[in-house]
Fold this sequence. Notes:
75% of the residues lie in helices and 0% in strands. By secondary structure, it is an all-alpha fold. Helix 2 crosses helix 10 (215-241). It is globular. The mean pLDDT is 84.
Amino acid sequence: MNKLAFWEGVAILVGTIIGAGLFTLPYAASQSGLMVALFWLLFLGLVVLYIHLIFGEIILRTPENFRLPGYVGYYLGEQAKKFLLITNFLTFGISLTIYLLLAARFMAILISPYQVPFQTLFLVLWFLLSIVILFDSSVASRLNFYCSFGLLALFLVLFFLLMPHFQAANFNWTNHLSWNWLLPYGLFLYALVGFSAVPEALKVARENNIKGSLFKKIILIASLIPVLAYALFILGIVGVTGPNTTVDAIGGLVNILGPHIIILGALLGFLSVVTSYLVIGTYLKHSFIFDYRWPRWLALALVVFGPLLVYLLGLTDIVKWLSLMGAVLTGFEAIMLLFSLKEAKKRNERPPEYSIKLSQPLFIFLVVVFVLGATFQIFFFR
Length: 382
C-alpha cells in the first residue's frame, strides 16, 4: 500500500472538515449544555460518517467523473442539479469568504507588531490562496496534507496547555430554559461535513493505485478524527472558560493563560481555515468545470472573485451564517445524496469497491432528521 497517498487522502478530508466551524463549537456547548453538545457531536458524527460513505459509494458506482452537483444531476435529473448550483454558490461562496475573514484575523494576531491593516491582509491572503487554487489540485492537496497534520498536533498541544486550568464546575451540563439545546445542530452539522473533499480524497487514492478495499477506510478514519478533535477542543475550552466562553473560543483564554495562548490559537485557526479554503476552492473549480461544463476561465473567475464579491457585499454574523448553511443547505445536500444512492443502486452501472446498506426505515429516519433540523433552524434561530 502507498501509505503516503493513503494518509494524503485522509488529510484532504480531515483538512476540509476541520475549518472555521470548529471555533463556534465551544460557544454552542456553553449555551446548550455540555451533555446536549456531546450528544449532537456523537449523533451527527455518526450520521455524517454514514453520508460520507454513501457519497463515496455513489462516486464508485458512477462511470463518469463529477462533483456533488454532477452526481445528483446524473441520477436525479437536470432540475436537481440546477438547484444544487444555488446551494453551491451560497454554501461555498459564503464559506470561502468566512475562511478568508478568519484567516486575516488570525494573521493579524500573528504579525501584530507590524500593525498591517486588516483589509490589506485580507487582500494579500485572497491573492496568494487564489494562486494556489489556479494550479493543479495536487498542489492544494499536497499543502493540505502537511497543514492538516500540523493542525492536529496543535490541537493536542493546546489541549494539554488547558488541562491544568480545567474545572468541571465550569460545565453547564444541560440547559432547560430555552431552545438553546437545538443551537448546536446547524453548527455541528456544518463543522462535521466534508462533501467537497470526498471526490478529491478518492481521486488521490485512485491515482496512486490504492486498493479499492481501502477506500472505505479512508473515509471512515477521516470522518472520525474530527469528532475526537472537536470533543477535546470543546472539553478543553469550556472546561477552562465556562460561561465566559467566547464565539471565537480563543478570546476567553487571554486572562487565564496569557497572551502566548493567543499566538498558538491564532496559528491553529490560520491552519484550519487555510486548509479548508484550498480544498473547497479546488472542489468548486472542478465542480464548475466537470459538473456544469463551464469554460475553465469562467470557473476560475467565479472561484477567485466570488469570495471577494461576497466580502464587498458585507457579511458579519459568522455564527448565524454557519448555522444556517449547516442545517438548511448541508441538510438538503445530504437528502439529495440519499436519493442518489437509491437510484445508483438501482441502475448498478459499475460494481463499487464497497457498498453501504440503506434500508427504507433508515432512509426515512435520516430524511426526517434533516428536514426537522432545517425547519427548527429557520424558525427558532433567525
